[in-house]
Specification:
Layout: H1 8-31, E1 39-43, E2 46-49, H2 50-66, E3 71-74, E4 89-96, H3 98-103, E5 109-116, E6 119-127, E7 132-137, E8 143-144, E9 147-148, E10 161-164, H4 176-187, E11 190-193, H5 197-205, E12 211-218, H6 219-232, E13 235-241, E14 246-252, H7 257-269
Parallel strand pairs: 3-4, 10-11, 10-12
Antiparallel strand pairs: 1-2, 4-5, 5-6, 6-7, 7-8, 8-9, 12-14, 13-14
The chain binds L-MYO-inositol-1-phosphate.
L-MYO-inositol-1-phosphate is lined by residues 75, 93, 96-98, 165-168, 195-197, 214, 217-218, 221.
Length: 271
């Protein structure tokens, strides 16, 4: 059964709630940044902070007060929430770029999206260190602090600034992520690894970068920012879906999207 999409009034309500929730998460993390080294879990290429968990609860509190019967799927309190039917699912990443945040690098953000069935219908990304709020719903413009945004007009990959990321699962027995990185580096003007996928995609949406590629990324990293990028006029493609939550994802301005897709296709085959 295909879920029916909300009307304009409901969409505005959803977007308003996403903006409040994402601000609550981001402001909590920002105001408590002196506690950023309180670590919950440590892995080889990843950490989970007490502030990840607390900031997620701040966002959840806002959403539950307005939509108590909706599902919530959060990176930090992962429940296998249903993702079909008419009941909306809120998708939260309280701190995207956790490692940057831990090190005091001002390149991190909070992300909140709401999906009906498989369709993300509204989303917001808040970047506390820059005081930037990106937002969009499926029938409206993408905005940055209330003003419409647009992608770059760079029309060939070899002049593009491409953003990418290395999965938290990289290991010394698997060269594939590095082979892809090499292909990107050789075929673009420059590659940057900034460490916060949602922020990277918003940077494509507003024209500060031309493309974003990540071979292993999670739904909560791309849900809100992907919608914002599409409403700004960029193109996104889920190149491969590994499971319900993890995928190979690209986003680029519409001039270079297909060229980028052709470049990375051979690297998708072996992921
Ligand atoms: C991180 C991303 C980063 C990506 C990592 C990770 P987290 O999210 O945004 O760009 O390369 O694999 O998923 O864990 O900081 O929310």
């Amino acid at each position: 059964m295909t879920a029916s999409l909300p009307d304009e009034v409901v969409l505005r309500d959803f977007l308003d709630c996403a903006c409040s929730a994402v601000r609550a998460a981001g402001r909590h993390a920002q105001s408590q940044a002196h506690r950023r080294d309180e670590i919950l879990e440590e892995h080889a290429h990843d950490v989970k902070l007490v502030l990840d968990r607390e900031s997620q609860l701040q966002a959840e509190r806002i959403i539950r007060s307005r939509f108590p019967d909706h599902f919530i799927l959060g990176e930090e309190t992962l429940q296998q929430a249903p993702h079909s039917g008419d009941r909306p699912t809120w998708i939260i990443d309280p701190i995207d770029g956790t490692l940057n945040f831990l090190h005091g690098l001002p390149l991190w953000c909070s992300s909140v999206a709401v999906a009906v069935g498989e369709t993300v219908v509204a989303g917001a990304v808040y970047v506390p260190p820059l005081e930037e709020l990106y937002a969009a719903h499926i029938h409206g413009p993408a905005t940055l602090n209330g003003s419409p945004i647009h992608p770059s007009t760079t029309d060939s990959l070899n002049r593009a600034l491409a953003l990418t990321g290395l999965s938290k699962h990289v290991n010394r027995n698997d060269d594939r992520p590095f082979t892809l990185l090499k292909a990107l580096a050789l075929n673009t003007r420059k590659v940057r690894i900034m460490g916060a996928a949602a922020l990277d995609i918003c940077h494509v949406a507003c024209g500060r970068a031309d493309a974003y590629v990540e071979s292993s990324i999670y739904l909560w990293d791309v849900a809100a920012a992907g919608l914002i990028a599409r409403r700004a006029g960029a193109k996104t493609t889920t190149v491969h879906q590994y499971d319900r939550l993890r995928c190979f994802y690209i986003c680029a301005n519409s001039h270079i999207h297909d060229e980028l897709l052709s470049l990375i296709r051979p690297y998708v085959e072996f992921t």
